[in-house]
Batch of 2 targets.
Target 1
Amino acid sequence: MRRPHRSTSGVLLAVGTLVALGAPATASGAEPAGAGRAPATTHTTHTAAAQRGAVAFWTPERMRSATPLDLPGGAPDGLAAPAARPAAESRGTVSTVAPTAPATPTGPSVRVKSFPQAGGPWTGGGAVVHTIGRVFFTFQNRTASCSGDAVTSKNGSVVLTAGHCVKYQGSWHTNWVFVPGYHDGQSPYGTWAAAKTLSTPQWTAGEDMNNDIGAAVVGPVDGKRLTDVVGGQGLEFNGGYNKDMYAFGFPAASPYDGSKLIHCSGTSSKDFLLTQDHGLGCNMTGGSSGGPWFTSFDESTGAGLQSSVNSFGYTFLPNTMFGPYFGDEAKNLYDTAQNT
């Protein structure tokens, strides 16, 4: 039997396309949503016909008009905060994956010396302007956008994003595409449709905020794989807390409009309230969800090790972004995606 949960309406505010993470929360230690049921499906496939339809659907005009779907009446119902974690829980073994350079190298970037940064356009060039892009999809017959990042993978086709950017309120999003290097409706490196979208078991079963991590395996464009065209960022799992971080995304809610790559930087902290997430001073808004957080980031090359994604913010704590810890759950999701 599902236990009643304690509402935190007005406490959580999503930074995703849906403003989707403002939600009621399960009381600490309570049974999460979906407990006692069969495990939720952790992925969905998109047929070749659906992929072609998604690419055709996302015209430049639709991309420009896709906005964060602010849900009226405060926080939407249905998301669960995590149950309390044991104090002595191991965070696992540190592992890293190196970045991948694109097949066609680009010119050098310009060091921007932007640490710390509360939020502003990225002007440094480098790998991030190719690997990071906007994610577009339909949700409840509405057009919406998130952010995502191409990462090094065995299949050369993996995009990481937030869990609520692939599935929300029990439904997998449709017409899902990734547009790296997006700018004002333009797709300079192509529009990449998802062949499969995936999330963690914890997110798909109960929308556990600790595991708001999603992935997509995109099909080829003109016979080429994604990271062969744009390159792929590296990754770090179980890297710990309180680290220098850079966060990127395409926020589309005021004062931003989704047309530019925005970044924040600073020394991260650990969420002291409902989650085990990283926290970072950042003013990005709706639409930035799913954008990457990097450690070991080199401003001169625009490359680093992705270790989180933009996920949510608290309404009473403005200009602070939170992103899930990339631990064993994230590593398992990544491995599943790259071996698809």
Target 2
Amino acid sequence: MSQAASSGAKRPLKVAVQMDHISTINIAGDSAFALMLEAQDRGYELYHYTPERLALWGEKVMCRVEPVTVRDEAGNHFSFGEPQRVDMSEMDVILMRQDPPFDLAYIAATHILEKLSETTLVLNNPVSVRNAPEKLFVTQFADLMPPTLITHDRKEIDEFRNIHSDIVMKPLFGHGGAAVFRVTKDDLNYGSLYDFFSVTFREPWVIQKFLPNVKHGDKRILLVDGEFAGAVNRVPAEGDLRSNMVRGGSPKDSDLTEREREICARLGPTLKEQGLILVGIDVIDGNLTEINVTAPTGIRAIQKLGGPDVAGMVWDVLEKKLEA
């Protein structure tokens, strides 16, 4: 696939990271940064760019990138070399790590990166990312999920609410716990919340049965090339429904239950087949709620809790794929 792989050369890999600008990230919890630190430790050539810089010239993908050096020092975590305009087919690996929203700009970037499929290994496979919206892809495993409805229709939501009473409403393409609401059976805000969603989100919404045991945690499980790699239990802050660490959730060390191992075993072959090398799944009380394929987090939290070196696992897999 890559030049290094085709020639058998042992030169340093050339790695480009497509991400939100590195100056804006919180390095304490950023998985892209963890992957960059590991790549640098392995002696790879590391480059940084933001997705709007991609330029498609017919079949050729060009981009202005900066050579980047990273340091695990908050406030002093990166420095750039001189910007370069490069043919992206010269890269061995591209990490597609910008955060959602999964909007038309995100989709356009997947189409552009798809042009590099013959020369460059992209994590995750851009075709599979495009075809696996996180809150829709998970419905391929509906028997592992809590009762879930995806719709924009008020009457369907009313029917679901009549059956399950206590529900959660969230945007289909939301991320980071934004706009996640619990609606109880007698909640007088339901009508207003429906109106708010109607004018804010054109796409359908996700409606799920509320799982009371979320108070004990929403477990993030990372899979690398379809295999379990590590887990962290995210416990919501007092008085908050959401367990996302960007919303105040607390990371706790965690082992897998038998049910969670079953979930990983069911998902693994599909993820591997589709080239989804780094995936984060969310499990609440034995219920699969999301499959995160765009820019899954959790690597740094797992490592800080004494868990496995997931970043190292990712690069081990990528190196093997390049050598194949």
